[in-house]
Amino acid sequence: MELGEAIYSLLADIFPICRSVAGEGVRETLRRLQREIALTIHEVPSGTQVFDWTVPREWTIRDAYIRNEAGERVVDFQACNLHVVNHSAPIRAILPLGELRQHIFTLPEQPDRIPYRKSAYDEAWGFCMAHERLMALPDGLYEAVIDSELGEGSLSYGEFYHAGASEEEVLLSAHICHPSLANDNCSGLALLTLLAKALSGHKTRYSYRFVFAPGTIGALAWLARNEAQTGKVRHGLVVSCVGDGGGPTYKKSRRGSAFIDRAASHVLRYATPAPAILDFSPYGYDERQYGSPGFNLPVGLFQRSLFGSFAEYHTSADNLDFVRPEHLASSYSMLLAILDVIENNFTPQSTMMKGERQLGRHGLYIGGDGSPTTQAANMAMLWVLNLADGQHTLLDIAERANMPFADLLEVARRLQEHGLLEA
Amino acid sequence: MELGEAIYSLLADIFPICRSVAGEGVRETLRRLQREIALTIHEVPSGTQVFDWTVPREWTIRDAYIRNEAGERVVDFQACNLHVVNHSAPIRAILPLGELRQHIFTLPEQPDRIPYRKSAYDEAWGFCMAHERLMALPDGLYEAVIDSELGEGSLSYGEFYHAGASEEEVLLSAHICHPSLANDNCSGLALLTLLAKALSGHKTRYSYRFVFAPGTIGALAWLARNEAQTGKVRHGLVVSCVGDGGGPTYKKSRRGSAFIDRAASHVLRYATPAPAILDFSPYGYDERQYGSPGFNLPVGLFQRSLFGSFAEYHTSADNLDFVRPEHLASSYSMLLAILDVIENNFTPQSTMMKGERQLGRHGLYIGGDGSPTTQAANMAMLWVLNLADGQHTLLDIAERANMPFADLLEVARRLQEHGLLEA
Amino acid sequence: MELGEAIYSLLADIFPICRSVAGEGVRETLRRLQREIALTIHEVPSGTQVFDWTVPREWTIRDAYIRNEAGERVVDFQACNLHVVNHSAPIRAILPLGELRQHIFTLPEQPDRIPYRKSAYDEAWGFCMAHERLMALPDGLYEAVIDSELGEGSLSYGEFYHAGASEEEVLLSAHICHPSLANDNCSGLALLTLLAKALSGHKTRYSYRFVFAPGTIGALAWLARNEAQTGKVRHGLVVSCVGDGGGPTYKKSRRGSAFIDRAASHVLRYATPAPAILDFSPYGYDERQYGSPGFNLPVGLFQRSLFGSFAEYHTSADNLDFVRPEHLASSYSMLLAILDVIENNFTPQSTMMKGERQLGRHGLYIGGDGSPTTQAANMAMLWVLNLADGQHTLLDIAERANMPFADLLEVARRLQEHGLLEA
C-alpha cells in the first residue's frame, strides 16, 4: 500500500474517537498508535501544577443530545462528537429554546457547519450545531442532556524515542486533544506515527523523540517532566494540519535563524514555488511552549494550510473528505527532506584546495549534451568543490549556490568516493 | 483652549516679529516665549569665534521701502518684513529701475509671492518682492531706502532646562532666525515652548534641554559653550515646519540607528500609512551641527513637510493661513509619542520564563468576541511575555511584534500589576 | 589616434592568429604584444603537473580541409581557423559523408555560423562548419585532412609588471588561448596591453601585474609558479569580452565584498543605468582559479556582455565586425575608473571636526544659481567634510552619499588644498 494511503488509513482509524484534553479519548488514540510503534504512555494526575498551569480533570462523555417535545434528537453527539462543547460539564434539563440558545454555538457565516469549541479550564456546558439547523428549530421546550463527567484522573501523552548515534535529539510533536477533526490533527498524529515507524528500521545520526500530547498543557507537562533533558533538543518541529492541499507553511522557531529554520525554509523553497515562510509569533500550536523564553528550543511549525486560515478550520468540514492521501504523502516527503538536511549536513573539506579540479581526469565530468540538467550537475560539483574549504556546511553551500541540498549531497558523496572531498 | 489652538495662538503672536541671525527680533521673540516658560537668554558677543564661524554683527532694521517718483511706496517693509533682504546693509539712494533691479529678488515661477532671502555673512543690500509687481513697475527713478544698521552687539539664544530623574538629556532644538515665516519656524518655536511648559509639571526620567537659537551659528554657539556637557545628550530632535499638513518626515541622525532613530521611525509608522523616513544627509537644519563628526550627537530632524519640498517654503505664502491648529496638534502628539518611547522604554523580565502564562487564571485573558481588537490585545500580552527574557527592551518587542509601543507599554504595565512581569 | 581605434587596431592585428592552449599561436600573439610592452614570456614544459592539471602537449597546425570528390575544399582552415577543432589530433582519411559527420560540429540554430570548439585534454579530431553548408553537402566520399601535430613542447604565458610605490599588487589577467574570436578574447588582450603601456609612464601607488595566459591551465601555471607571492595581490580583475556594446557586467570575486567588488560595482553604477552586478559563481573565466579556496584572491571578472549570453559567443560571428572601437574605448574608461578608485581611495581627516565648515570663508562655497550641478558640488563638500572623521574611506563616503567617487575625489583634493582636510 502506498504511503499516502497508509497515513490516510491510520488517520481515518483515529478520526471518530472523541478526544479531549484529558480522558479516555486520548488514551484510546494512543493505544491505536501503539499498534504501529512502541509508544510509551505517560499519565499526569489531575491537579498537577505544570509551570503556570494545572492539569485539568478527566472528561468522560457517554452521550449528549437535545430532544424536542416529540422526543426526537435534534442535536445528537452520537452523530458527531463536535455537537458537544469539548470538556463540557454535565447537564440534564428541560428549557425553553430561548434559554437553551445561550448554550448553543453556531457559525452564522458557515450555516451548514458545526463549530468545534472547547471549555477545558472553566466549568461550563454547551452544544455546537449548524446555524441553519438552529434557525429551523421551533420555539418550545427542549431537553438538553450532556451525560458527561469531570473527575479526578490524569492527562495522558505518548512518547516514542528512536536512539541515533548521538544523544542530541530531534523533537517531533503533535497535539492529540482535538476530537473528530481530520486535518487538525489526526493528520499530524498519523503522519508522525508512520514516520516514527519508518525511522525505527534505520540508523540515524540524531536521536528522535516523538511527543503526542494534548495542546499546551500536554506539551508543558512533557517539558516539566523532562526539563533537565531539553538541552539535548537540537532541532524540532511541531506538525499539524498536514493533510490538506494548501501551503506548505513553515513558521520559524522563536530563534528565527536556527538550523531548523534554515533547513525547512530551504526545503520548502524547492518543494513549491511560493511557500509561506513565516516569522515566529507567540500564537499557534506548541511551538509557543517549546519557544517560551525559559526554554527557547529551536522548534518550528510545519503545516500545509496555516491554522486559522482555511474555512474548514475548527468546523465539521475538517473531515475525512478534506484531507487526501496525496497531500499526506507530499507532506511526508517534505518532512523527510527537512530531516535529510538535518541528518546529512556536514562540512566538506576539499583534498586539494588550490585550483579547480580537472573533473574529466577523475571521470567526474558530465559531458556532452550541454542540457540544463548536465550543466546543473557540473555546476553542483564546481560549487561544492569551490566552497569545500572547511568553512561552509553543505547547507551553506546549497544556500549560496541556490541549488537543492539533496542534489549537492549526492554530488558531495560522489566527490568523496573519488577522493576529492573528505568530511 | 485646545492644545492646537494654543500653539497656533503663540505662533501667531511671534509671527510678525522681524527676526534675523542677531538683533532685537530674536530677543523680542525670546521675551515673548519667556511669558510661557522660564527661558534663560544667552548673549554671544559679535565677533566671537565659534569653531569655523564668527558671530555676525547685530542687525537693526527700522524701515525699508522703494518709492516711485510719485512718492508712493511700491515696496514697503512695514507691510511685510520679507521685502527686505534679511540682515541687509543700509542703503539710501535714487536709482533708475534697471540698476535697482540688480538688488531685487523675485520668484518668476511663483509671481505673486515674495521670496525670503538673507545675507548674514556678507555686506550687501537688497529687496525681495513679488515678480508680477516688479514686472508692473514702469521705468523711471526710484528711491531705495533701507534704514538698517549692522553694529557690534550680540547673538541671542534661549535655553530651557527641565531636570528629570537622570542627568542624561533629551535635546530639543528649534531655529529662531527666520522673520515672518509661519511654518519655518514659528511653528517649531511655539510647539516646543508649550511642550516645555507641559513638561515642567511632570516628573520625567530624562532631563530635557530646549534650545531656541539662530540656525547654524546659534547651534554652534550653544555647542561651543556646552562642549563638555554634550556627552549627556542621549537623544535629540531638531523641530521645524510642524504646522503644515504634509509628512510627517523624520530624518535620521548621522548615526543612522540611534535609539531616537528607531523610536521616531516606529512612532511615525503608526501615525500615518507612509511616513517619510529619510537617511541622514549633511544638509538641512541644525542636525548638521549636532551631527558634525566631532560631536556626532544622536539628534534627528522632525518635520511635517520636508524643508524645501513645499511650494510655500521660504516665501510669503508661508503665512498664518498655511499652518493649522489641527496639524500643530497632531505634530505635538507625534512628538509626545516619540518622547514616550524614550521615557518609558525598559527591559521587562517575566517572573516565570518557562511555558506560556495561563492568562485566564490571572484574570488577564480578554475573551469572547474574537474581534480584531481583543485578538490584538491578547497577542500584545503574548508578545510581551514571550520576549520578556531580559534581552529585549519594550521597543525591541514592539518592532518584532509589529505593534505600537504605546499598546505594549499599557500591556506591560498591566502584566506588572498582576505580578507577571518585573522591570 | 584615438584610444578606441588603437585598441581595435591591435585587436585586429592578433585576430587572425590561430591560438590554442599551447603552441606557436600563443607565442606569436605574445611577440606581437611585446612590440607594445616589455612582456616577459614564460614557458612551462608539456607534462608539468600544476595542481590537479597537467600541461598539455603543444599543438602545431599547418593546414586542414575537407575535400569533395571533385577535389574542391568544402571546409578550409585557411579561410577560417575555427574550422578545425582547436588542439585537434591529426587525421588524413577518405570517408563517406555519414561517417565524417560524426567528427563535424555545427550550430543548427545558427545555421550560417561556424562554432568554436576545442579538445585540449583528449586526443580527438574534428571539424567545425556552418550547419547550412553541411546540409548542402551531397553524399559521397570526402577527404578529411588535419595536418596537425601534438608534441612535447611548452605552454607559454606572458607577464608584465609595473612597479608602483607599494609592493602590493593589482592583478589584471586575460586568457590568450582562443583562436580567431575577436571579443573573446582579442579584445581583453589588446585593451590590457594598451593599459599596461599607458601605466608604464605613470607613478602609481600599487604595483600592477598583467598576466596573459591560456585559460585555466595557464592561470594555474602562473599561480603554481608564484604561489608564495599571491599574498601580494590586493585587488584583481579578469578581463574578457570587452569589445561589444552590451553590459557592462561585473561578476564579484569569491569573497563577495572585497574592495574590488565594491569599487567595480560603484563605478559601473555610474557608468550605466542598469549594470549587471553578479555574485560569484565557480563557472566562468580564470576568476575560478584565482578564487579557488586555497587562493581565494580578490579577483572579479569585468566584461561587457556576459560570456555565454550573446549569440555571437564562441562562433565565427565573434569577428572584427562584432567589436567596435567605441565599445573598447568605453570599456577602457570603466576599467580606468575602477583602478582610479583603487589608486586614490584614502581616509580623509577633517582638520576641524566640530561644527560645519563655513565654506564661504574659505572661498569654497559654490554660490548662486542653485542649479542641480552647483547644489551637487556643495553637497559633495558637505558629505566629505561630514564623514572625514578618520573612520570612513572616500569610497565609504561615495557609497553613503550616493555620489560618484571621482567627484568626491576632486572635492577632497580641493578641500585638502584649502587645508580643510588631511589624509
Automatic annotation (TrEMBL), chains A, B, C:
Pfam families recorded: DUF2172 (PF09940), DUF4910 (PF16254), HTH_47 (PF16221)
Residues in UCP01524 winged helix-turn-helix domain copies: 349-422
Domain DUF2172 span(s) in chain numbering: 58-149
Top-level taxon: Bacteria
Domain DUF4910, chain residue ranges per copy: 8-345
Record-linked InterPro entries: DUF2172, DUF4910, UCP015244, UCP01524_HTH, WH-like_DNA-bd_sf
The protein's name: DUF4910 domain-containing protein
Species in which this protein is naturally found: Kaistia terrae
